[in-house]
Amino acid sequence: MKRSLQDKLNQRKKEGTFRSLICLDGLVDFWSNDYLGLSKKKINVDNQEKNHGSTGSRLISGNSDFTVSFEQFLSDHFGSQSSLCFNSGYDANLGFFSTVPQKGDLVLYDEHIHASIRDGIRLSFASGIGFRHNDLNDLNDKLRRAANTYDCIYVVVESLYSMHGDFAPLSELTKICDNERIFLVVDEAHSAGIFGENGVGLSAEFSEDIFARIITFGKAHGAHGAAVMGSEDLKDYLINFSRPFIYTTALPASNWQRLEKILKSDLSVERKMLKKNIEIFNSLTSEFGSFSSKESQIQALRLGNRGKLHKAQEDLRKKGFAVKAIYSPTVSEQDECLRINIHSFNDKNQITALIHCINSLYS
Questions:
Q1: Among residues 42, 86, 50, which one has the least CA distance to residue 265?
Q2: Model's pTM, two decimal places?
Q3: Closest among 232, 219, 154, 228 to 187, alpha carbons compared
Q4: What CATH number should be reported for the domain holding residue 284?
């Protein structure tokens, strides 16, 4: 392999941020995005769909009557004029941001935004500038500076931030973006399925003021795929110009059939259990100073330097807990943390034991 590539790998190892694939089956799950445990839910699909694989992209042979009707169901369920399905949240973000913002446009993104959005912006011909995390003063300042420079401006946030578990101020953002040249885009990956009425996400109540919402189904819904919600014109534009949509083999209809049954299910019990477990966690961790929202299922703990984080992750695994230490460049160096995901299927004894282990090892 090229020497410069090997040097990059060696540098990662030296810094303690080298990534490798692991399996932690059998440990208590405090690290997956399966917040409601729906990935384990048995769903029977109809015989006419379950044996059908996909045969091509949706613009050739990979489309189906069910997929078309499912997109209409998604629009109705999430309160959108239209919906367009993508194979994953990464594909949806890449497909939207590499396609919609044009040369002469500006994308203003929260500095904690997901890597898939950054990658999409990088592939577009638009300019991209970050603003300080959840800092509306910084956003307003950058909007003022950009007002007479760009054709239009896209402001991009996550409703619930995936690494640190805090929420975007959506109500204030919709007011700031109340301008015909400013378009608000919200990634709902980690809030859809949990928050909002029937799990429609945090941005649904502001849908008329939001240009596009990206809903990902690989987290709380325990499924696969994603959808971009917006106007019919936006859907038509993505179908015609979004390369990640045009040039990929479509997911089979059976994938969407399973997801539709999940979305139609009564998940109130799972959501109540998740909320209860979040409250239990917060009642036990006040001394750690988690900088996540108290309402979030994603809880981040700062335990010290990178070495302590790595040791915490490994020691907790030896105790039977699957957790994840988050390092730079996924987050900034000052925001490196132990990320703990709470689920509806965790119980009080598991949560208490986890916190006891953290207490005994690192207090």
A1: 42
A2: 0.93
A3: 228
A4: 3.90.1150.10
